[in-house]
Design a protein that fits this description.
two-stranded antiparallel sheet; two-stranded parallel sheet; 4 strands; globular
Length: 206
């Protein structure tokens, strides 16, 4: 992508990010109120999880998700590391005992991620882009893995739509992110968004 066309793409991307995230945020507001009540009434702890992540060019920021785990989840993570199903610096466990019953339903349909629309409106994230890593995970990235943060992170990307639950090697995840970075365009973003809608409807998240 040449500099001129890349600049136009980024301007258009920010415009549609802002208006699409605003539209979806207000459209989903009644649903988010219902989810907030369910989270609050079914387990102890706050409604939102403060997601400490790393964004474009290594910039730290806080995003938000609906809390899908029990209140002491971060403390228990160290005890579960021996069961990690993902090769590399990130953690993945299919039957994670830290997830609440409501949280399982939210994750299945990616509803726990709806508050990230606020991060897109603010400009910390994009609708489409590599998923931001936790700050604790980023510390263990190799130099080539950090290349996934050369662009603004997103709510969804190729990893979300190319069988994320079947990927067990973080390097393969990064390769998908770099493929997106090398080939990104408005048409590609739209295709990823449409594929994400299909994944959400099918309930393929975990």
């Amino acid at each position: 992508m040449e500099f001129g066309s890349a600049r136009v793409y980024l301007i258009l991307k920010r415009i549609y990010d802002f208006f699409l995230s605003c539209f979806l945020f207000f459209l989903c507001s009644p649903l988010m109120v219902l989810i907030a009540l369910l989270v609050k009434l079914t387990s102890d702890g706050p409604v939102f999880y403060n997601w400490k992540v790393v964004g474009e060019n290594g910039r730290n920021f806080t995003s938000y998700k609906f809390r899908s785990m029990y209140q002491d989840a971060d403390r228990l993570k160290d005890k579960l590391m021996k069961d990690n199903e993902m090769k590399g610096p990130v953690f993945k466990l299919t039957n994670d005992p830290r997830i609440t019953p409501v949280g399982k339903a939210l994750r299945k349909y990616s509803l726990d991620e709806l508050p990230q629309l606020w991060s897109v409106m603010k400009g910390d994230m994009s609708m489409v882009g590599p998923r931001p890593p936790l700050q604790s995970e980023y510390e263990h990235f190799t130099d080539w893995q950090k290349k996934k943060l050369a662009v603004k992170p997103g709510i969804t990307c190729l990893w979300q739509t190319c069988g994320r639950n079947d990927i067990s090697d973080f390097d393969e995840w990064v390769k998908l992110d770099l493929e997106y970075i090398d080939n990104r365009s408005l048409l590609m973003d739209i295709k990823i968004l449409l594929d994400t809608v299909k994944c959400v409807i099918r309930g393929t998240g975990k």
